[in-house]
Amino acid sequence: MSEELLQQILIELKDLKTGQQNLEVGQQKLETSQQKLEAGQLRLEASQQNLEAGQQKLEASQQKLEAGQLRLETEQQKLEAGQLRLEASQQNLDAGQLRLETEQQKLEAGQQRLEIEQKSMKNDIADIKQNMATKEDVALLPSIQQAVSEAGQALARIEDAQERIERNQIQHAKILESLSMRFFEHDSDLRELKRIK
Fold first, then answer.
1. One-character DSSP codes across 65-95
2. Could you give the 3-state DSSP secondary structure of residue 140?
3. Is 148:66 a contact under the CB 8 Å cutoff?
4. Which structural domains are found in the chain, ordered by start?
5. I need a labelling partner for 153 at 20 to 30 A (CA). Which of 60, 82, 164, 169 fits?
6. What is the mean pLDDT of residues 152-177?
7. How far apart are CA 39 and CA 152, in angstroms?
8. Closest Cα partner for 84 from 178, 176, 194, 185?
């Protein structure tokens, strides 16, 4: 009876030992799984950190792009404003050139009239001088001399006016040349602005 009990106890001890071993193996497997889970958690956290860092870089790049866009828009506005100023200057130059051309035409017309009057007065003086030698005109000599003197003075005034007109024409020609140079400079600047746009 005691021998059977002993064998039963031995069997139970053996089963208990086997269970203990199985429990230890399970515990090891559980610990291994726990370590794997912890390692996975660490990798997940590292990936999360990488994602957040990438997000921050993306946001910084976006801000740089937006700042660059603002700078480009500002430069575009400056270019457009400069183009408007150049166009206004060009219009002013065109208007000034038209005015100068009108004045030039008036001066040329005035010069032609003066030349005609000068020629007419010279002819009149020549006629007076030619007719002064006759006896009939001797009594009229003082008045004729006065008329000749007045004609000579008028002729001198016409010559002075003609000289002033010529000087004005030279001055206007210089102004026109200067305006033309400025016009070409502004035109070149406009083409450069349009090329940049």
1. HHHHHHHHHHHHHHHHHHHHHHHHHHHHHHH
2. coil
3. no
4. 44-196 (1.10.287)
5. 169
6. 75
7. 121
8. 194
Q: Which amino acid is at 21?
A: Q
The token pair at 175 is: 């102004």
Residue with tokens 């208990």: 16
Taking residue 77's Cβ as centre, other Cβ atoms within 10 Å add up to 10
Quote the tokens at residue 115. Answer: 């030349």
Does the pTM surpass 0.90? The reply is no
pLDDT tens for each residue of 59-115: 999 999 999 999 989 888 888 887 888 788 778 878 877 887 887 788 788 778 877
Instruction: Please state which of the ranges 54-63, 65-74, 141-150, 163-172 shows the lowest mean pLDDT.
Output: 141-150
Name every residue whose Cβ is closer than 8 Å to that of residue 176 and which is 6 or more positions away in sequence.
Answer: 97, 100, 101, 104
Residues 6+ apart with CB under 8 A from 172: 100, 103, 104, 107
- Indicate the residue type of 119: K
